[in-house]
Design goal:
- The complex is a heterodimer of chains A (113) and B (247).
- The longest helix of chain A has 29 residues.
- In chain A, α1 crosses α3 and α3 packs antiparallel against α4.
- With 113 residues, chain A is an all-alpha fold.
- Chain A has a single domain, classed as 3 helical TM bundles of succinate and fumarate reductases.
- Chain B is elongated and about 70 Å long.
- Helix content of chain B is 33%, strand content 15%.
- Chain B folds into two domains: 102 residues, Beta-grasp domain (Ubiquitin-like (UB roll), Roll); 139 residues, Alpha-helical ferredoxin (Fumarate Reductase Iron-sulfur Protein, Chain B, domain 2).
- In chain B, α6 packs across α9.
- In chain B, a hairpin with a 2-residue loop joins β6 and β7.
- By secondary structure, chain B is α+β, with helices and mostly antiparallel strands.
- The chains are: A mainly alpha (113), B alpha+beta (247).
- The interface between A and B is medium-sized, with 14 and 19 residues.
Amino acid sequence: MARSNKPIVWGPFAAGGTLTAFLTPVLILLTLLAALGHVPDLLAYDRMHAFAAHWLVKVATVAVVFLSLWSAAHRLRITCYDLGVRADTLVAAIVYAIAVAASVAAAAYLLLI
Amino acid sequence: MSERVVELEVLRYNPETDREPHFRRYSVPCREEWVVLDALNHVKENIDPTLSYRWSCHMAVCGSCGMMINREPKLACKSFLRDYQGVIRVEPLAHFPIERDLVTVIDDFVAKLKRVKPYLIPKQPKALEDGEYRQTPAQLKRYKQFTLCINCMLCYAACPEYGLIPKFIGPAALSLAHRYNQDSRDGGREERQQEIAATEGVWECAFVGACSEVCPEHVDPAAALQQVKIKSTVDWYLEHAMPWLNK
């Protein structure tokens, strides 16, 4: 039997899931702190802006954004299937396209910095 | 000794006389320490000798008495009556065709098990006089948990993906393939990957995790399948991104 090509979509899904598991709680905490006006000095806006201006940080940020979105898209695709939406190819095309488009947008904005 | 009368609602189906399955109710005087299997044995011995079900060891080792008890896949020999209230509904394992009463047709599982070659395929066959294949405790630990499977098929009855896609090789067979792939003495991974890395192999798994919840031996098939996915993904990327590594 032919081996599946599913690893193409599953690889970034697993990587994104792992990243999200570790990063999302941190991001939520930092967002809450910022909302309450308790941003540590190190994470002030202009410092973060300067940090994001470095090419390596841009690459890392795009990677994190892409993997997280891809992971969410894949999970949504599987959930749709489990909920009885059997148009898997269509659902896959839509959710993956959104993930890719948003990643491209993130890359474009980062390049403007 | 305390005794209570338990109401059992058992699915009955005789393909020779019944057009479709139906339920029959039995009142069984039970002891405190009885399990569902004891109650079924009581029914067969004292109330209705035509009741059919599989069982053998009565100690969660043989894996024969898997059935749906109150819609959950369980070993009848491990399900204490004292843990249930009201009428207890007993049905054959979900997702399998019924042969008769609580007996299911398991040919599909047995065929899948054969396909994944769940036996040691030695890397280098050794002559008897060369001694045994040795293993360190660390090497044993990599697969020991997955050896505990008793082929009871509760994981197949619990797996919604198997219910949706009958071609799916399923939790137990994939876990057993992984058990041998993880064995340092084994060299059969390439052969097994033909089956388990296919779409109807590990990739139909959506990591629902129900298999691990119902597994009476704590094999954690879901973990085995996730490990297979990771390894198959690494294989895929090595094969496609670095074709020069291919033999």
